[in-house]
Design a protein that fits this description.
With 122 residues, this protein is an all-alpha fold. It has a domain of 84 residues. The chain has five helices and no strands. α1 crosses α2, α1 packs across α3 and α4 runs antiparallel to α5.
Length: 122
């Protein structure tokens, strides 16, 4: 093996090593971003479902029911619902929007049991 061949082999090994390192660092960065998004998505899903859980619990407890009603019309909940619409899957967002529209069009507290029965499949 001549000097030129050794030089080419050394440079080529260095370039391949740098390429592998660059690709691996990109893969690691994407994996961390996905994990962070999963955590954020989980929090937004839970924050969005909290008033629904309160409503279901409030069927027998009027205080929980009143908290749920206040929460659903609050600014923070509307912001969370918007974030939910941005990150949720199409099917989940459609279902959530239908349930929200049913709740709001039913007059909120007046017909909540009807609204729940419409969207909760037993």
């Amino acid at each position: 093996m001549g000097l030129n061949e050794q030089l080419i082999a050394t440079v080529l090994a260095g370039v391949v090593g740098l390429g592998v390192w660059f690709i691996q660092s990109r893969i690691d960065r994407l994996q961390r971003a996905k994990e962070r998004l999963v955590d954020e998505r989980r929090k937004i899903y839970l924050d969005t479902l909290e008033p629904i859980v309160r409503t279901l619990a409030g069927i027998k407890d009027p205080k929980e029911f009143a908290k749920a009603q206040k929460q659903i019309v609050s600014f923070d909940y509307k912001r969370t619902a918007l974030e939910f619409n941005l990150i949720g899957s199409d099917e989940v967002v459609r279902s959530f929007n239908q349930a929200d529209a049913t709740f709001l069009s039913s007059g909120g507290a007046k017909n909540t049991k009807v609204a729940i029965k419409t969207h909760v499949k037993c």
